[in-house]
Amino acid sequence: xxxxxxxxxxxxxxxxxxxxxxxxxxxxxxxxxxxxxxxxxxxxxxxxxxxxxxxxxxxxxxxxxxxxxxxxxxxxxxxxxxxxxxxxxxxxxxxxxxxxxxxxxxxxxxxxxxxxxxxxxxxxxxxxxxxxxxxxxxxxxxxxxxxxxxxxxxxxxxxxxxxxxxxxxxxxxxxxxxxxxxxxxxxxxxxxx
Length: 193
What we know:
Helix 2 packs antiparallel against helix 3, helix 2 (24-43) packs parallel to helix 6 and helix 4 packs antiparallel against helix 7 (141-173). It is built from 8 helices and no strands. The N and C termini lie close together (8 Å). It has one domain (16-192). The chain is elongated and about 75 Å long. It has helices at 3-9, 24-43, 49-71, 76-103, 116-124, 128-136, 141-173, 176-192. It is an all-alpha fold. The model is unreliable at 1-9 (pLDDT under 50).
């Protein structure tokens, strides 16, 4: 058997990853990012440090999903770490929205509130991806904050599940270093055979 056919028989150990744009959680964080930018620049006072903090937390939630997904090609550890950073950033943003509602004497819509279920259904419906932009200018601060809170709760739930899945994949497949060792041993074995 020639070296050329041996090389073709060895499976690549670096799997192309990074399909984050297809993840529902990534799409939800894009909406959170856009809504937060609008909210912060519309309802917070110019010069308020919270504007930058909220926008950065929303951006971090989205960007770390993308970066973690791309990093997974060479480091499962980094993928898990960055997915957790995304979750932590969104949890920080959640507290900012809750603080805003409390400090402005507005209501947070929880279970039992007349608008809670409608908001929850809208936030989980596919229509949100095409309709949220048009709604931005029509929603008041209480409505927009509650929509963002609902979306953040959905996103952090999905991120917890994603982290569990990533941990399971690591247990089943190992890290890149293990995969590299296996590939090298398989290659050597093929060269001898």
